[in-house]
## 1
Amino acid sequence: MGDIFPRGRVSVAGASTFGVGEMPGHSTIEMAGKAVQLALADAAIGLSEVDGLFIALPDDLFAGLSLAQYLGLHPRFTDNNRAGGASFMSHLVTACMMLDAGYLDCAVIAYGANQRSSGGKLSTPARPDRWDAPYNPMYPLSFYALAAARHMHQYGTTREELASVAVAAREWANTNPEAFAKGPLTIEDVVNSRLISSPIRARDCCLVTDGAAAMVLTRTDRAKDGPKPLVPILGAAAATWYNSVTQADDITITAAAESGARAMAMAGLTPGQIDTVQLYDAFTINTILFLEDLGFCAKGDGGKFVASGAISPGGSLPVNTNGGGLSCCHPGMYGMFAMVEAVRQMRGQAANQIAGAKTALAHGNGGTLSAQATVIFGNAETV
Amino acid sequence: MSGPSAEWDAALAEGRFLIQQPVGGGASVFPPRAFAPGTGAELEWVEASSLGTVYSATWIQRKPPEPPYNVVLVDLAEGARMMGRVEGVTPETLQIGMAVKARIIAGETPVLVFDPVEQTNG
């Protein structure tokens, strides 16, 4: 047993972003609260109807309590699950099960961060553990660099192939009004950018922006009467293999191989039946690792796959159609933004809408390639 | 009575590099545990061979004139993996797959580092 998921019985009734890019003068809870307000308006659901709160904030270990206070609610349940950037996909798993069971009627998932306006550095309470710390790795960057270096060694992945991930993200961002980083970006720009922790260079790294996002979930029987096109949740799975990627068996294989396979089995779909992919591209190597692990190309072929143009506008597998963490926004824990872009694609309302898309996969990553969580969204035709 | 991490620290301070192995055999364990991860089997301390192989490596850049420093992952001969640094190498000479040997730098907080092992033919 295990992995029984209420396929299609819970849907996204509302979704929002707020303050993507720069939104000075706002605290993280103010950012998140504003996103909740917008998502509820999007769903045409009143604040008082919310009975479940799911949130992780960069600077508040008790964020669930803070959100209840900020919204003035007495929720039946709050969930503070902190799995880094995969937290929100994990929140969604819990929310789906609780909604389907009837424990909750209306769940909100939220995130907000002001890391660009509050200092311009990644804001995280996470640190290397005591076994890794004596060697002064940059956290989390060097851990991803170790994965990238091994991937290049093991499979012959090239510097230029890594760079093509950043170039594809920028091409999508250039036609997304919400994206923060726009303008030309070439392979040469990326491979000649400042070396930080080899092989990772400055343009291999996600942005540091402000931003908030929220989603409202209800049972599908209610959501289908809502004002927006139905976005049912077809499958969702979280997988955790370790905290420090130092302890991976094979650093080139992440727990996305588990979360993706489980989520797709719940949805009854194969990778070939996924129309668009939104994944957490904290660094260019992430996109390559996750496309392999999620089954969109063979292990080791990710570099060639991304360099072929497959993930770029006009390619066979539209990936990070908002520009991703590399060029749209990265307010610290990006998971919510991948899910909101997937929802927009399923509604037919994305800035870079993929014509005829009926399924969208959103994938979150937390820690140092540690926590992986995959959600598959559909449209009304898929249930 | 100390936990396994404190026991490992105390041994390192005495100049000994210990590693845990399941009683009766099996893959070695690092970082130290109270029991074998995944199986719950009982563990015992053994002297590590100190031999290992570089599994991955990164060079962290610093503001010139400070030179970059490396951070590596080392697969120990006993099977466990740990983070470390290799001393006496450059970005050109440090290679994934390179044989290394652990050395303890004594001090108030002793640190385990690695040196390249000269490869000999035959």
## 2
Amino acid sequence: MPLIWLLAAIAVLAAAGMVLGRRRALASAGGDHRVLHSLPSYYGTNVALFAAAPALLVMAAWIVVQPLYVESRVATLIPQAEYSDEGELSLIMSDVRRVADGLNQAIRSGAISAEEVRDMRADVTDVRDRLAQIGIAVGSEVEQTTLTAAQQYRTLDGRGNVAMAVFVLLLAVGGFVWTLMKTDKDYRARNSVENAILTILVAASTVAILTTFGIIMSMLFETVNFFRQYPASEFFFSTTWDPSFSGRGGSSELGIIPLLWGTLYISLIALLVAVPIGLFSAIYLSEYAGKKFRSIAKPLLEVLAGIPTIVYGLFALITVGPLLRDAIASPLGLGTSASSVMTAGLVMGVMLIPFVSSLSDDIINAVPQAMRDGSLGLGATQSETIKQVVVPAALPGIVGAILLAASRAIGETMIVVLGAGAAARLDLNPFEAMTTVTVKIVSQLTGDTDFSSPETLVAFALGLTLFVITLGLNVLALYIVRKYREQYE
Amino acid sequence: MTDATAPAPGARSRVGQGSLLRQDTRTIKRNAAENRFRIYGLTAICIGILMLVFLLTSILSNGLSSFRQTTIQVPVTLVADRLDPEGNRDPAEMARVTTFGYAPLLRDALVGTIADAGIETELDAGDIADIVSDESVAQLRNFVLANPDLLGQTMPVEVLASGRIDGFFKGRVTYATAELDQNISPEQLRLAEALKAEGLLATGFNFDFFTAPDASVTRPEAAGLGVAILGSLYMMLVVLALALPIGVAASIYLEEFAPQNRFTDLVEVNISNLAAVPSIVFGILGLAVFINFAGLPQSAPIVGGLVLTLMTLPTIIIATRAALKAVPPSIRDAALGVGASKMQTVFHHVLPLAMPGILTGTIIGLAQALGETAPLLLIGMVAFVREYPDAPWEGGLFDPATALPVQIYNFTQRSDPAFVERASGAIIVLLLFLFLMNLAAILLRRRFERRW
């Protein structure tokens, strides 16, 4: 647990800085805190910050970089002949890591001494047996190259850890001493502390950018890998989705069209359910309903939005699916499957009702009262006013809301995983099971995955397509909504 | 409406003849249209609410029975020389006796109990033992290993009935279905009924459902939510520890300090887009960045927590900014006026006043994160986990665990209909947690909300 001790040392140093910085500042002012530039506590905080922050930052960076560096150094020890591609090398490396971890554990528990480990040779000692004796399981037989690499890994890793501890401690002490020396009654401690806090605030707000960047990069990187193994034209234009499970590449057909068709078909049905119901609910709630009715009905509808999608999924699987099959599909001879486009679409529609209704509600409420009064004053009935004045005025916003709902529907996962089925099919019959982009992302990325085969990598291409489609819809929707808002403000 | 302002000549003459007390056809038509429109609206709301009721009833009717469990009372004689051949009461030595050593004890005890109670049955001993869950044998073994001193005594043990017997007392299994089922026979059901009549078999509150770990596909009666609830709790801890400080810091910057420039615009656009990115995309991010790149372990609560943190951040930022905006400028002006710095104004005055709003937003964000399933599927939380993770300070955040919604998904993927009951029961538990969190948010808002 050297990391814990290192953190504890830094914490102690920071705490000491808190006290000493304050004391030194007060001493330089002769005990009269009115002479100080800042409040006394700022001097303490300043010293603590400069002792801890740089040290912690360096430590975090070191922890990220060290394994990468050590691995690249150790990987050169493994002869080229042992592996043919990156995948095999990473398998060997994970073996190396496991052996190194095992040896470390053995030393910690005192079963094997450090010297013994250093001089260990695979042809003399059976490392796997030795480790198994003290209850550490190593997968395969340990060969000499692996053992050498593991020993080297241990040495480099240990050296790196020591170097990190020394460097980080030096940095902490250095920061501590340096700021403490600077502390004096005229030193602008508050400004210094506030600048540091502002930096933290800015760093926090970049997390959003980093997330987007991470999403795009992670998917782009693997998608490029995918297109190296599988032609892009096939992916975008082939009408068959038929991944092979045994073979690696070649025999799989990975066309996105049937998946997109399923996605859009289900989303269309969902919108056909959600838009009329949501819109009429919003109109009734904002134009007709009394205060009391509104205060009951609106929260009840919004409960639908708070229910997790897995609940809707189970609802589709055990209630709606069998119901539709027994009541409609089977008697009409349209299908025998409980999971179908209709099942998923209906349930998703229910999920989207509150989404459409609360967005439309806000937009309808934003239409100025003067427009309604004008129409009513000319003798129009309330419904005529709504149909011919309020809705046209709110139309851009409503379209925006519908687009947002569509993007929700396209990206929805659990309802379709449980309600839509897994068969990729290009069909018009809504009582047939079809599948969507999100279902296939889940099925290709769960279970045994091999990140060098196109069958797994295709999930990243699907994810990127999904991301681009939903992003496009969102940007369009936000643009429309924003433009509309400017008209009345 | 153009018709209303410029009616046809014929219409005018009709208006002239009409009475104030009698509506003309056109007015009747327009009023009918008005009423129809109003009814459409009301119907839409009713459909929405009915759907909610339908959904909840369906889940409750399927799931409430999972809170009850059928158990059988059997006095088991713990034969010392069979369970502890060495005779030294050392649990390590005794652990060599597998469940195969315990099964006959339980079987004999059951047969003996039935004979003592005077119940006639044509079943042989093996079929009688089948009315008890396989899990019971393992439970008995664990119990003995934990209390080796009890060897040699006769202990009254409460064992789980098998899933089919349990289903029989909940109405899921009947004599007709048992006829077709190779896992249970009508004769066994009759035996169970006789046991119930003797008071040896009872259906009671299923406390284990909340604490026990998941069980294998063939033992639905033993499956519980213990690991899942713990895993979800750990993830919520991670989300709370990361999303709240980062979200609040980002909001303070954007709301109070950020100048109008490119960088600020970029952050704003990113936040509003992240709020609308499909959740499964965050799962792909977690898989690629946290597991494949950073090398964090699969199915660990820390990875789930990180992914959910990124998902929850936009919600928390949006709520926090609204709360900060709601603090009137006069507060800031007053603080600045008496010489506080901008930073002091924000941290000493604005932030404390905005705190109730921030906490409400955080709770709602956490509730959202608690119900999220799709991203967790991709980072390996679907794995079958029976071991409880360690405490968080012992590195439990890196131990494999599952989460409540993922456990529900797992239950739905198993063929035994008893798992539908378990899944629905788990959903009730999940909804209960969500309800409590939302209630807390509402109460917090009611209690501390200030109108300026």
